[in-house]
Amino acid sequence: MPLRSPARYLLAALLLCVPLWAAADEGLVLVAHPDSPVAGVDTETVAALYLGLRTGLDGLPGARPLDLKDRKLREKFYGTVTNRNLAQLRAHWSKLVFTGKGRPPRAMSVEDMAATLRNDPEAIGYLPVSASQGLRHLLPVP
Amino acid sequence: MKFNRKQCVRARILVLCGSLLSAHAAAEDYLDGRVTVNAYGTFGVAIASDSDTEMYRSISRNGPPLTKDATTSFDTRAGLQIEGHLHEQVDVVWQGLLSRNLEDNTALDTKWAYLRLRPFEWLDVKLGRYLLPLYQISDQLYVGYAHPWVRPPLEVYGITEKVDHADGISVRALWAHGDVNYEFGFTWGQYRDDHDGTKVVTDPRTFSVMASKGNLSVRGMVAHAPVDIENSFFTTLNGVLNGPGATKKYDLTGEDDVWYYNLGFVYEDADWLAMAEALQTDLSDNHAISENRAYSVTLGRHLGDWMPYLAYSHHEIINDESDAFAPPPFNGPPFFIGATRQAFINQRLYGQQTTSLGVRWDFHPGYALKFQADTTRVHDDDQGLFSPKPRGNVRTYTMVLDWVW
């Protein structure tokens, strides 16, 4: 029996959402340029870097953190690494922006971040494991 | 609830101006990222329960009061920040604040205006105007979105509200040792104010250290400020205050040394927010100006986009001057003078305490709605931040909308 129009659209929408769910459920990994001198980092150091409380990493003083635009991935990363939600994060960054203490990491798509990390030895980012091939893995974000 | 229509209309215009400026800031970057614009604002409505008194934001009483008539002037303000990125390590920044002043007119004040140099990743030098880092959140004092309350606790933040900035140099250095991150701050500048016949000049020097580990940050700071006050009326009054019978020195003018100490911490994770802050001011041997001790404690619980919180804040004057003048030998002019000067000295008894219960709702990225109910009790011999002294506890209710772009 052919599906009626609304059901067809609903099914199509659900199918389109499957990759998004898969990406959100997949583990993340902190990554850097393939030749990055950073050997590995701990969660607290990454949290401090992404919250603007420290600059640079051991072996990479000019480390520049990058962010993802995808809300679910950001939520997962910051929830795991900084133990804060996005509303808390926005309030935190508003403190730094209006006091001249820093700016939030530049946000981009998964594809753009992977490309940036392959070209910029000072960039640090986080990606779904499936999108991180060829990059240096620094810390798993389960 | 009685609204003062004139004040409401003015406040709406103020907010509209801020919103229009902010609407442009939504684009954020201009000229290929060489200019960045950000904005913030607060629209607040507040009302007090006591019909016979007015409450002020600070001991300097430099803003419109909160009364039994609902007012938007007390908490409403808007800020705009423009950054020019001249070089990878050089920026120029200006930040202005629109708010209501004592005469209930809209005033634009420059709060930050500086040249920023970053010779190293860990070093940041600002030359120009900066907000004095006297409190735990004084850097972002006017950015309501950045803190949990409808307004920072007045018992703590109302002590030096007028002297909130200086022109000079501000240095900030970051240092990481293991998993502890340190931030060292040093400022040296000058604040000048010449208003209504009173000239105030002070050169505050501040030094602060903040240590952060995980979700906990602890901050301590000390400031030293030589203060010079000139006012012809006060000079005349000095003669009366220091006349026969005065047991201590009471100088309302001239130079004084003020020391200031502040210690606090913030703990925040996905579930809890805990903040505490304590401060004290000490003067040399001049008893005309108040020495303050204040603290506040805040506990909040994150529940998704909601955060209910409870806060308690306390302010007391350390230098009790109830024995300021020797008892007069007889009734007559000396008694009258003694009573007058004792009454004058008593004006600076700002001691009070407030218990606050509030809730913050982050209903949309960049927007937060807050409601807070406060109960303020003025200490027995004091008048707190009120004029005249209230008859009992004063309840205030405030709702604000905070936003940032």
Please explain how this structure is put together.
The complex is a heterodimer of chains A (142) and B (405). Chain A is 44% helix and 18% strand. Chain A is an alpha/beta fold. The radius of gyration of chain A is 18 Å and the shape is globular. Chain B is mainly β and 405 residues long. Chain B is built from 4 helices and 20 strands. Chain B has helices at residues 5-25, 154-157, 232-241, 333-346; strands spanning 29-30, 35-48, 54-55, 77-87, 90-100, 106-120, 123-131, 165-177, 180-195, 198-202, 205-213, 216-230, 254-268, 272-283, 292-301, 306-317, 352-364, 367-378, 386-387, 394-404. Chain B has an 18-stranded antiparallel sheet that branches. Chain B is globular, with a radius of gyration of 22 Å. Chain B starts with a helix and ends with a strand. Mean pLDDT of chain B is 84; it is low at 20-27. Chains A and B meet through α2 and α4 of A and β2, β5, β6, β7 and β8 of B.
Structural class of chain A: alpha/beta
Order of helices and strands of chain A, N to C?
HEHEHHEHEE
Strand count of chain B: 20
Structural class of the secondary elements of chain B? mainly beta
List the secondary-structure elements of chain B in sequence, H or E: HEEEEEEEHEEEEEHEEEEHEEEE
**CA-based shape of chain B:** globular
How would you sum up the major sheet of chain B?
18 strands, antiparallel
Our estimate of the beta-strand percent of chain A is 15-25%
* Portion in helices of chain B: 10-25%
Topology:
The complex is a heterodimer of chains A (142) and B (405).
Chain A: H1 5-25, E1 28-32, H2 43-50, E2 64-68, H3 71-81, H4 86-97, E3 106-108, H5 110-119, E4 123-128, E5 136-141
Parallel strand pairs in A: 2-3, 2-4
Antiparallel strand pairs in A: 1-4, 1-5
Chain B: H1 5-25, E1 29-30, E2 35-48, E3 54-55, E4 77-87, E5 90-100, E6 106-120, E7 123-131, H2 154-157, E8 165-177, E9 180-195, E10 198-202, E11 205-213, E12 216-230, H3 232-241, E13 254-268, E14 272-283, E15 292-301, E16 306-317, H4 333-346, E17 352-364, E18 367-378, E19 386-387, E20 394-404
Antiparallel strand pairs in B: 1-2, 2-4, 2-20, 3-19, 4-5, 5-6, 6-7, 7-8, 8-9, 9-10, 9-11, 10-12, 11-12, 12-13, 13-14, 14-15, 15-16, 16-17, 17-18, 18-20
